[in-house]
Amino acid sequence: MSKQPARSGFSGLIAAIAAVVVVAGGGTAWWIWHSTKSPSSPTTPNTVQQSPSPSVQPKVEQTAQVFWLKDTGSNQELISEAITTTADRQPSTMLKAAFNSLLAGPQKGEVTTTIPARTKLRNVKVEPDGVRVNLSEEFTTGGGSAAMIGRLAQVIYTATSLDPKAKVWIEVEGKPLEVLGGEGLELEQPLTRRSFEENFTL
Questions:
Q1: Measured between alpha carbons, how far is residue 15 from residues 23, 24, 28 in Å?
Q2: Closest CA to 102 of 90, 88, 116, 86
Q3: What is residue 167's predicted lDDT score, i.e. its pLDDT?
Q4: Measured between alpha carbons, how far is residue 129 from residues 103, 152, 156, 168 in Å?
Q5: For the chain, is the Cβ count within 10 Å smaller at the N or the C terminus?
Q6: Which of the 8 DSSP states describes residue 191?
Q7: 142 pLDDT band (50/70/90 cuts)?
Q8: pLDDT digits over 1-33, tens only?
């Protein structure tokens, strides 16, 4: 009796076991490789939040304008002069400097003013609804209608030099100015550059 068939079957069994080991080993290797490989995640930069430093407003040059009058021969025209000062950024402070210059009178001979020399600035304040200017009683004295219109223009245009569209309230010794001068120049407040140009002629 030949034993060859038994050897052949034994060899087949060994081959089958070897195949299983190879497959199992390959699967194990694949699982280990994927397990140890962690998915990459985007790198998040380390950010440090810094508290904003308190804002410091340095004193800087601010510019307003003063308006003078110039005689052209047939009428008067307004001439502006820039006023520069080292001050804080408050509009009221700037306009106060401008009005102090206006009431001190012009430094150049080619321009004039019709505001009486002794007129004092009581206060000027920029508010949300416009500019309020309070002058001393001397503002209403002396001169005819042309002089009154000229000084009115100087005040309105100087008060609106930071905002040409601003409204202006003029007071004399704390009271609203309704009539200017002996000839009765009636004022309807608040005043603006536009309302001045519509109602008065220099």
A1: 12, 14, 20
A2: 116
A3: 98
A4: 25, 20, 15, 9
A5: N
A6: B
A7: confident
A8: 444 444 444 444 344 444 433 344 444 443 344
pTM of the model: 0.69
Q: What is the CA 202 to chain-centroid distance, rounded?
A: 34
Handedness of CA 129, 139, 105, 196 (dihedral sign): positive
User: Exposure string (b/e) for 160-185, b if CB count within 10 Å is 16 or more?
Assistant: bbbeeebbbbbbbeeeebeebbeeeb
Give buried/exposed letters for 84-104 (b at 16+ CB in 10 A, else e): ebeeeeebbbbbbbbbebbbe
Task: Tell which wins on pLDDT, 77 or 10.
Answer: 77
pLDDT tens digits, residue range 145-167? 899 999 999 999 999 999 999 99
Torsion of CA 98, 101, 103, 109, to 10 degrees: -130
3-class SS of residue 51: coil
